[in-house]
Amino acid sequence: MSSLSATPSVRGQNTGLIILISCVATIGGLLFGYDSGAVNGTQPGLKGAFALDDAGLGFTVGSLLIGCFIGAFFAGTLADRMGRRNVMRLAAVLFLIGALIQGLAHSQGIFVMARILGGMAVGAASVLSPAYISEVVPASIRGRMTTAQQIMIITGLTLAFLVNYYLAAAAGSSTQAFWGGIEAWRWMYLMQAVPAAVFLVTLFFIPESPRYLVSKARLEEANEVLTRLLGPAEASTKMAEIQASFSMDHRPRLSDILTPRGGRGFLGIRAIVWAGLLLAVFQQLVGINVIFYYGSTLWQLAGFTENDSLLINIGSGAVSIAACFVTIALIDRIGRKPLLLIGSAGMAITLFVMVYAFSQGTLDAAGTLSLSQQMGVVAVIAANLYVIFFNVSWGPVMWVMLGEMFPNQIRGSALAVCGFAQWFANYLIAQSFPLMASGLGLAISYTFYGACAVISFFLVRRFIHETKGKELEQMQG
Length: 477
Known about the structure:
Number of domains: 3
Radius of gyration: 22 Å
Oligomer: single chain
Largest sheet: 2 strands, antiparallel
Order of helices and strands: HHHHHHHHHHHEEHHHHEEHHHH
């Protein structure tokens, strides 16, 4: 089996190879972000091409998230059967097919099917990329390497915004013909095929997870991978630790998330799985994807022009990327739990500042919120601070912890359940925001997200245990 090569470090650890492997895995995060953000500039084209009303547009756009929670659920269990790398390859193929069909489809039904396929790829990549990185990276740098996944997600989102902006400007508008007589909005989907192809090809040059190989009793292959990653001396020790963490007469299955006889749990589910569900669901309940999915709509509701709204979106993406570099510097020093607590507190404060700003606005005859210049500035500053707090904490740390917090024996099954919950919560928040904003107003809507941030602080303090510096074989469930 071939792989990317690098020079081993002095201590035997092949840091260069580990970084290159992590970079390949995080291309899945880039595609995750790009696919989630690309739809922002395509809505006029979708409405015109498929004669959609608002409800039809909402379903067509939201169908991605249906695929996401399906893909996240099946990825974990498939990864226990087929291997982490093979399922990521399958996701790359789905990314590629989904991008091409979405860009070329001339019926709503085919477009929605392609969007669900793309969503399945997003869901699979979202749980498997951080899990794979956690399983090949030493504990001392695992947090930093897995945090790179969040940077790539936001980079993908921001790249989608920039590509959409360029294509629409070059064509005259998103609905005008561009290269090859194909409308610009279709090229917004087709462009995703490029990173999808790169992801697929590079996945053939990285090794399988040694933890997966041990679980399948492919011990010689596992030892070979560990030797290349850690050096021969450390590899033999690590092999023994990994083998001890698996019950070799038990094949991983979904029922592993249930409480073993005599164990502690609630409703028959292991406590560690409940902790993962808490992280997965509350990452969405604090409302971050309202900023990402409805950023332009949100700021126009708050009184900004369409052009200003686009610039705010791009600015939020840049701020998010910068915030993740702070996480890289801190996560393996101060730990995961302190970052989550800081993030919960910061998000709660900034969300309630936004609530105050929105409550000072006035509604015109059409029901559109208008803010004074002063309150508009307050809302934008608070929103960007909120994005910073999220991306220093819950954004990357949730993915880091889901990839590392579960014992080897149940990791695939636990990721299936937590990934499903994360994307289902994402779907509910994305679908409910337009109704909440129009029916209840932005102030009340953001009060709900702020309250969830407050609750998340106390839940983390009570139920989340630190994983900094622990080897995966030390995780207890």
